[in-house]
Amino acid sequence: MTETRLTIRRPDDWHLHLRDGDMLKSVLPSTSANFGRAIIMPNLVPPVVTSQDAAGYRDRILAAMPEGHDFTPLMTLYLTETTDADDLEQAAKSGLVTAVKLYPAGATTNSQSGVRDFDKVAGVLERMAEIGLPLLVHGEVTTPDVDIFDREAVFIETVLDPIRRKFPKLKVVMEHITTEEGVNYAKSGGDNLGATITTHHLIINRNDLLVGGIKPHFYCLPVAKREKHRLALRAAATSGDARFFLGTDSAPHLDQNKLCECGCAGIFSALNTMSCLAHVFEEEGALDKLEAFASLNGPAFYGMAPNTTTVDLVKTDEKVVYPPNIPTPEGPVTLFNPGFDIFWKVENEK
């Protein structure tokens, strides 16, 4: 049996949904087994808007951690038009909070409390720029007359670029970029602009979602785009460019909430992400760039050291079989199916 082995620093996930309660307990092990740290999204119901909310959520995550797992949740606050800048600054300086998340109101799951009037958050953004606290943006406009496939490009032009011009010292992460325009804008920025790319947007395009019947488990926001955009994302992720790093946007939903008349947006990929990424990077002839994307670029942007431990990614002739879903007390959560056989697995940690 032939074997290919790649040893990299333990990866981090710079965009992760863990939910809460029983769902949190069910999905957390899929991340904590292989990742050292993750930026935890705050769009719970109700959202994580204060330092007290963040401290409570962090405690629940740590309480759900499987024995023997070494994982650090990096907490975020949900930006609202009434966010208290003093509370935010105190949370940041204490190390409780790593970033603040901007959801345009109505852009995605549990974003109803997000920002409608950006002038109302100008003071908070100014404070964040002063203390070096990153702003994480869900980059889509919500204007009804803007086509859903154009909403990222329009957001960059009408919202993000004006914010960055007004607050040039503000650190910004363009989260889960999905377009060539997103890639190009990230490349045009300075050291205070980064971009995360998901596993699934490197693999699927909108044909995968829509051709031959609607595939609810491929429905996510931002929605998958044309093939030219997927290829632009692949080129960026596998380039080694420090501005691009892994944010899975792994977002679990019960199957009953995906397979219904108005299904939820989100793809759960935490369990098989590293296997899928190894496949993608090998296809692109860029296995030597995988460590940068998954383990080095993110910490560098956030001013953190890489993880000291390593993981081995091993490819053999034997197909790796992941379960089609993971169980929760309320029902199954379907795992992302990349549409190809997987031969890479995370074998161990040193």
Key words describing this protein structure:
single chain; 350 residues; alpha/beta; eight-stranded parallel beta sheet; 32% helix
Low-confidence stretches: none
H/E topology pattern = EEHEHEHEHEHEHEHHEHHHEEEE
The whole-number mean of residue pLDDT values reads 95
Number of strands: 13
Discrete helix count: 11
Distance between the termini: 24 Å
What is the SS-derived class?
A: alpha/beta
Estimate the global geometry from the Cα principal axes: globular
- Residue share in helix: 25-40%
Radius of gyration using CA atoms only = 19 Å
Largest sheet: 8 strands, parallel
β content, as a range? Answer: 15-25%
Structure, described:
It contains 11 helices and 13 strands. With about 350 residues, the protein is α/β, with parallel strands linked by helices. The strands form 3 sheets. Strands 2-3-4-5-6-7-8-9 form an 8-stranded parallel β-sheet. Strands 1-10-13 form a 3-stranded antiparallel β-sheet, with helices on one face. Helix 3 (about 85-95) runs parallel beside helix 4.
